[in-house]
Amino acid sequence: MPYWVYMLMCHKNGKFTNFYVGQTNNFSERMEEHFDNVRDGDTDTYTGRFDFVKPVWKKQCQSRGEALSMEKKVKAMDHSEKWDVIKGRRNV
Prior knowledge:
- Helix content is 37%, strand content 33%.
- The chain has 92 residues and is α+β, with helices and mostly antiparallel strands.
- The protein has a single domain (3-86), classed as GIY-YIG endonuclease.
- It is globular and about 35 Å long.
């Protein structure tokens, strides 16, 4: 079963604040959960604390283990490295 590692741009008060990095085996369902959290202002969730989230990058993996490993690598990157991944100037 394929998995996805993805990044969201998170915005608060009209400004970009940070990236959210996650992994899932159902990308569209997971995005709906994030969008619902934002819409509902669900502050018990990470993305619910923001006014707007936008998916900006995703990569398919062949297993959950591969996705977890890639997620960990991306989370360890600083902002400029994540921008390079999004812009295709850096591979994960």
